[in-house]
Amino acid sequence: MNGKTVMACIEAAHATLKEHTEEIAALDQQIGDGDHIFNLLRGADALLGLRADIEAEAFAPALDLAASKLLSTVGGSSGPLFYSLLHGMAKASGESGDVASVQDAARIFAAGVDAVAQRGKAGLGSKTMMDVLIPVASRLAELADSDASPEAVLDTLPGVAEQSMLATRDMLATKGRASFLGERSRGHIDPGARSSQLMIDAVCARLAQDRA
Ligand code: ADP
Ligand code: MG
């Protein structure tokens, strides 16, 4: 994997966010302030503008470049959180930063998710994007332990992400803006869980397509 792979994943994420803009805006209007998808699209647009620079880099510096750009363009809670995800992944990728195995991918993604957890102080069950990121990282770790093929991983994770996203509907929000609603936060899917799930789905599909 290199900067071109990173850029292809960014494009896939951007396309799915565009496609689901209205839906995610509506979710954030229900339990947040409605800006989540627009924050993310601003970031994704900025990353598309950096295409040549990102593509020219190796994997880890490409992720880091994207991370810094997100920090300066995405507002809200999610800007620093996505910065932490990508920067944490870059740090764990080491110098060459190649993702040569499912084990590498599991270690790198887990490091990114840990960085988000440290930044946002949310664990499982707070009704945030963590309720998608943590189960996906856990399943990826299990798949790595059982020596699953990359194809099996890319086929399995979207389902894990989807189930996890749907499970946020019944949760009580205890972190972020939605927590101000208390019990009224129940009955709505968390917008950050939905956007994260969609991006995971799109990135897996894109990586699977590259391997086909
Ligand atoms: P804001 O809530 O500041 O307007 P956004 O609208 O960009 O920020 O993002 C809202 C999303 O961020 C939520 O749907 C939730 O998934 C996620 N989020 C909020 N707080 C946290 C946190 N402490 N840890 C992880 N994710 C969080
Ligand atoms: Mg918001």
TrEMBL record:
Molecular functions per Gene Ontology: glycerone kinase activity
Tagged with keyword Kinase: yes
Keyword line: Kinase, Transferase
Gene3D superfamilies per UniProt: 1.25.40.340
InterPro entries given in the database record: DhaK_L_YcgS, DhaL_dom, DhaL_dom_sf, Dihydroxyacetone_Kinase
Keyword Transferase attributed: yes
A Pfam family: Dak2
Biological process according to GO: glycerol catabolic process
Domain DhaL: 4-205
Cellular component GO terms, alphabetical: cytosol
Residues in the signal sequence: none
Record SMART domains: Dak2
PANTHER family (alphabetical): TRIOKINASE/FMN CYCLASE (PTHR28629), TRIOKINASE_FMN CYCLASE (PTHR28629:SF4)
Protein name per its UniProtKB record: Dihydroxyacetone kinase subunit DhaL
Naturally occurring in which organism (per UniProt): Paraburkholderia caribensis
